Protein 1
Amino acid sequence: QVQLVESGGGLVQPGGSLRLSCVASGSIRSSNLMGWYRQSPGKQRELVASVSSADDTNYADSVKGRFTASRDNAKNTVYLQMNSLKPEDTAVYYCYLLVLRYQYKYWGQGTQVTVSS
């Protein structure tokens, strides 16, 4: 089992920045993908960014150039630096860990990000 705990959400004005963190604990296999999804009311959960254990990254088009995902493998932690935030970035952000061998995802509990003036 793997547990994921997110932190760093909150209320920020448009154009502002936030940094999300997610710490994984438990039986973590080295071959995995970590990253972030988000979900707004009435919308499907969408992939925001992912980071492999080799630091290869992938981003949704809507956040490219504004968000940066990174990870610290020694700390089993993934980060999401969010800059130039827009009201449409408002959502619950969920951290995930994908075990590549089994294609199984573990999820965090979610953290609210609200972008509003």
Note: The first strand starts at residue 2 and ends at 7.
Protein 2
Amino acid sequence: QVQLVESGGGLVQAGGSLRLSCAPSGSIFTITTMGWYRQAPGKQRELVATITRRGSTVFADSVQGRFTISRDNAKNMVYLQMNNLKPDDTAVYYCNAVTVACRGMNCWGKGTLVTVSS
């Protein structure tokens, strides 16, 4: 099993920045790609950004150029740096890990709330 714990959410004004962290534990050696997803009220969960073990990244068009994802393989941490935040970025942000150690090869954290005020 792999467990994921997110931190770093909070309330920020539009134009501000936040940094989310995700700390995996358990069978972390089985993790391949990690990423961040978000779910706004009344909307489906959507991809924000992913990063492979080698550092290849993918970003949603809506956050390209504003968000950065990074991964510290030594500390087994993944980060999401969010700059120039907009009210539309308000959502619960979930850490994701692709691993055979979880059902459906996907593990999820419980989420951290990001609220961007206008």
Note: DSSP finds no helices and eleven strands in the chain.
Protein 3
Amino acid sequence: QLQLVESGGGLVQPGGSLRLTCTASGFTLENYAIGWFRQAPGKEREGISCISSSGAAVYEDSVKGRFTISRDNAKNMVYLQMNSLKPEDTGVYHCTRPCGAAPVDLWGQGTQVTVSS
């Protein structure tokens, strides 16, 4: 069964850190670019970061320098390390297959991140 499952969300204070994990099953992760999207309350869903099959990464401007995407193909996992979190980072984070110009054909169920004091 094709599946992406996110984990690692939670409640964190401003300035804190979280690491999100996207675990893939049913397909060979190394063949695909994988992305992270964020759905903030009352806002459009936006792409946050994308990592190519070769490991090249791109970031949305608001998270550059604070978030780092990485992948471990042997474990079928993609990570999003989020540092210096801000209240505006609050939202549901989804991983997707693929990302970039190609249309998304697989979404995870999402994990909630709440940044609040």
Note: Residues 35 and 99 are 5 Å apart (CA to CA).
Protein 4
Amino acid sequence: QVQLVESGGGLVQPGGSLRLSCAASGSIFGFNAMGWYRQAPGKQRELVAINTRGGSTNYADSVKGRFTISRDNAKNTVYLQMNSLKPDDTAVYYCKLTTIWGARNDYWGQGTQVTVSS
């Protein structure tokens, strides 16, 4: 059973920073990618940033230059450093782990709220 536990969300003023963490536990075989998604009220869930097995990273255009995703393999943890936050970044942020071990499996965290407001 794979579990993802997110932390680090909260309330921050525009221009501020937050760092999200997502720790994966359990039997993880065939790691493929780990990333962050977000869902704002009334909107679809969207990709924010992803880190693949080969070490490549991809970002949504809206966060390029402001957000940085990183991964600690020893801790099975992925981080999202968010700088220069804007009110439009307000959303519930979800962590996702994708494994391919015979079949593909996607695992989601419970989500953490990020609110950017003055």
Note: The chain has a mean pLDDT of 95.
